[in-house]
Amino acid sequence: MKRLENHITIITGAGRGIGETTALKFASEGATVVVVDLNEADINHVVESIQKLEGKAIGILCNVTDREQVNNLIEKTVATYGRIDSVINNAGITADSTLVKMEEQQFDSVIDVNLKGVFNVGQRTAQVMKEQKSGVILNASSVVGLYGNFGQTNYAATKWGVIGMTKSWAKELGKHHVRVNCVAPGFIMTPMTEKMPDKVLDMMSGKSPLGRLGTPEDIANAYAFLASSEASFITGTVLSVDGGVVT
């Protein structure tokens, strides 16, 4: 039997990058994936990719900052499958600028998606998991949330905040047999980073003792482990998948 056989998972921001790779990984492990994103074309592409691999998936459009849309996402998933076994709060954005130049809109937009969006989905999912007395909530933090980064006041604040929410939820939901963890990726090779100059990529690789950037598969593997029964005694933790990056 596959590791996530008969497992129902919701993955936000699943249309591209780490989210897409995670959706494909979960499907390959036997999970039924609810692919969530803002872009319908991206959703359809991921759902079709999963189905071509004989996996199971549906797509739902949802803006995680909109509580009504989040309610619809959770209600539709439960109506379709009867339960939610895991949710991965992967959706996130950046709007970088130094502290003295950062505009209020840049700060607010990142807080709204990366922090409040995680709260919205996490809160609504927790209500379902508390009632069913099982489930796993996985949140996307970042190495930036642990160590900070030049020009990312807003992003670092959200990713540190996600860690705080993760640890708080783990304490609140443990008695209901719900586990809550987060993954803190380091520098990952994605379509966005591939466009960076070679000298920047070399600098990022040089920060890791392993001498390379991470891959989306590295992060997807971490999520799959934490969602599985193999991690049944792990909750409230931050799993750094960063190749050993330190400040």
From TrEMBL:
Binding site for NADP(+): G13, A14, G15, R16, N63, V64, N90, Y155, A156, A157, T158, K159, I188
Sorted UniProt keywords: Fatty acid biosynthesis, Fatty acid metabolism, Lipid biosynthesis, Lipid metabolism, NADP, Oxidoreductase
Gene3D superfamilies linked to this entry: NAD(P)-binding Rossmann-like Domain
Name by which UniProt lists this protein: 3-oxoacyl-[acyl-carrier-protein] reductase
Catalytic activity from the UniProt record: a (3R)-hydroxyacyl-[ACP] + NADP(+) = a 3-oxoacyl-[ACP] + NADPH + H(+)
Organism: Salisediminibacterium beveridgei
SUPFAM superfamilies with a match to the protein in the record: NAD(P)-binding Rossmann-fold domains (SSF51735)
Catalytic site positions: Y155
Pathway recorded for this protein: Lipid metabolism; fatty acid biosynthesis
Pfam families: adh_short_C2
Signal peptide: none
Quaternary structure annotation from Swiss-Prot or TrEMBL: Homotetramer.
EC top class named in words: oxidoreductase
Function: Catalyzes the NADPH-dependent reduction of beta-ketoacyl-ACP substrates to beta-hydroxyacyl-ACP products, the first reductive step in the elongation cycle of fatty acid biosynthesis.
Example GO biological process: fatty acid biosynthetic process
Similarity comment text for this entry: Belongs to the short-chain dehydrogenases/reductases (SDR) family.
Molecular functions per Gene Ontology: 3-oxoacyl-[acyl-carrier-protein] reductase (NADPH) activity; NAD binding
